Amino acid sequence: MLPDEPRSSTGPAPEAGLPGCYRHPGTPTGVSCTRCERPICPQCMVTASVGFQCPECVGAGHAGTRRPTTRFGGASSADGGLVTRLLIGANVVVWVLAAYVLTPRLGQTWSLFSAGRDILGGPAGIADGPDQWYRLLTATFLHLEWWHVGLNMLVLFWLGPPLEEALGRLRFLALYVVAGLGGSTFAFLVAGDWMNSVGASGAIFGLIGATIVMQLRNRGPLAPAVAFLVFNLIVTFSRPGIDWRAHLGGLVLGGLTAAGLMYAPRERRGLVQGLAVAGAVAVEVAMLLIGMSLYGS
Fold first, then answer.
1. What is the DSSP letter of 68?
2. Confidence at residue 63, expressed as pLDDT on a 0 to 100 scale
3. Could you give the residue numbers annotated as active site?
C-alpha cells in the first residue's frame, strides 16, 4: 500500500503547542521519529528498539539490511530440503511412468544408450549426434526397478538436505546436475561405442564426494562418509551390470565442483563458484566432443 499523501489544508488545525504529523498535518502529536525527528502520529509510528520511527525510515533501514546467506554463500531459506524432495519426487514419478505407464518406450528413449559407427546400424543414441544428447540428462532420472530407485533415493534423502542447507538451493541443484552429467559424459567417453545404462547413481556419487569435501572444509568427522564411499565402490566393482564409469565420473566431477563451491574465498565467492560450475561443464563438453570424435558419425 502506498503511503498516505500529506494533507494540505482541509483537516483541523493542530492543537496549540503540538506540531502536526508530517504525513497527516491535521493530527497533533508529541512523538517524533527517533531517526529523522519528524513528528509522527499514532497512525504512522512504527515501534523500534528505542522509541518510534516513521514509515520511510523503517523502509530505508530494511533496504540496507543484508540478506542472510548459507555457510557457502547461498540464499538462506527456512526449508533446507525443498530441492532434495523435488528431485526425489521427479525420480519417483519417472520410475512410475517408465515401469508402469510408458513401458517400454520411456526406458528406450531416455536411457544412456549409445552405439558407435562400427556397430551394425550405428551410430545410434548419443553417438548419433546432438538430437540424442538429451539422454545424458534424462538417464539420470530414469530407473526401471523399484529397488534401484529406492536405494538411490534413500541416499539422496540422507545426503541431500545437509548439502542443500549448506550450499543453498541453486548451488545444490547445480552440483547435482553437474555430477549427474559428469557420470553420463564419462561413461560415454569410455564406452560410447556400445553402452546402455540408467539411473541417478552418478549424481548420488557426486553427493558422496561433496559430503566428504564438506566434512574436510568444516573439519568434521570423515570416517562415516569415507566408509560409505568405500562400501559403494566395493559394490560397484564387485557386482555385474553396474556402470562403474558413471559412478566414477559423477564422484570426480561432483567432488571437484563441491571443492570450488566450498573453498571459494569470501571476497570473490560468487565469481569463483561460478567459474567452478562453468569449468565442470566445460570438462563435460570436452568429454562429449572427444567421445563423438571416437564413436560418432
1. P
2. 53
3. 201, 247
